[in-house]
Amino acid sequence: MKKVNLGATTLQIPAMALGIMRMEAKSPKDAATAIETAYDAGINFIDSADIYGQGKSEEVFGEALKLGNVKRENLFIQSKAGIIIDPARSHGSFVFGGRYEFTKEHLLEAVDGILQRMHIDYLDSLLLHRPDALMDLDGIKRAFDILQASGKVRFFGVSNFHPQQVAMLQAELSQRLMFNQLQFGLMHTGMVDFGLNTNISNSEGTDHDGGLLEYCRRQHITIQTWSPFQYGNFEGTFIDNPDYPELNAALQKVADKYGVGKNAIAAAWILKHPADMQMIIGTMNPAHILDSAKGGEIEITNQEWYDLYLAAGHKLP
Ligand SMILES: NC(=O)c1ccc[n+]([C@@H]2O[C@H](COP(=O)([O-])OP(=O)(O)OC[C@H]3O[C@@H](n4cnc5c(N)ncnc54)[C@H](OP(=O)(O)O)[C@@H]3O)[C@@H](O)[C@H]2O)c1
């Protein structure tokens, strides 16, 4: 498995992590199989969030950890906090409370809940899940200092933050922000579209996020890519999806050349990028985990990278 640096440090982490957003639907036994399969393929990095399955994903993970052969100390475990869940304000199955919150009290309480559900003593990393318009920078600083001093959290980062938000927060903190977790994949390419279409009057040339990709590279913040095999906002995977015939034909062609499956090529496309991103896969299916992991073993050519970008429906000027 390819490795990338953890933020601006020289510590090495795998270029692929296993996200457990969908673990809530699995039995602890199946979850343990998913964790072991990933671990054996070099993926010893776990990504969670307190809201996944309203906490159920972390409970299943905790049970799976007790059942399986993978030891906690051999894993890098990350979770996220700051999105409020509130069953009383339910909007369908996702029980969003209609509020983000980064107060010191909420962050401390959230981490205690995560540790309890996962049956662990510390988190390797904690991310602020999604920007809170009312974020109190001093409250975040105090929470991070307490969490670090108590040994409950080793490293910190953010998710879905634009560069000015990262810079603003970083200026207040004692700790260096290591990660920014953002959606990126063949069907979600805004971060590279902008760079390819600068100064052109098309929608791709519109900078939605303030040069996020370039900013993170310059600051040595590791970009973690969420939902790498999805199109839209959790609408489904594009892999083997008949609505994406051209992309699937292109993935198959490159997959045949390297003797792997399509997940591996969709993964290799992300990992080819010189920003040294860490991708977060969300499959719980051992066969899909294994094929995805192969994407961390191969390197596609520059032409193949562009051919896949075009086959996904993106245009070059
Ligand atoms: N920071 C954020 O705001 C944020 C938001 C969303 C997610 N995340 C993180 O990102 C992680 C990954 O998200 P995700 O689960 O949406 O990512 P994903 O890996 O793009 O999608 C996983 C889904 O695609 C399916 N899939 C994958 N390969 C397939 C194939 N070859 N054929 C058919 N189905 C296939 C999986 O089903 P099978 O299980 O059947 O393979 C699963 O339902 C999450 O677990 C979470 O940790 C973060």
Distance between the termini: 34 Å
- Strand proportion, as a percent range, falls in 15-25%
Residue share in helices? Answer: 25-40%
Radius of gyration: 19 Å
* Structure annotation, total helices: 11
Largest sheet: 8 strands, parallel, barrel
Distinct small molecules:
NADP nicotinamide-adenine-dinucleotide phosphate
Compressed to H and E, one letter per element, the order equals EEEHEHEEEHEHEHEHHEEEHHEHH
* Unreliable runs: none
Outline of the structure:
By secondary structure, the chain is α/β, with parallel strands linked by helices. It is 38% helix and 19% strand.
Question: Which structural traits does this protein have?
Answer:
317 residues, alpha/beta, eight-stranded parallel barrel, two-stranded antiparallel sheet, binds NADP nicotinamide-adenine-dinucleotide phosphate
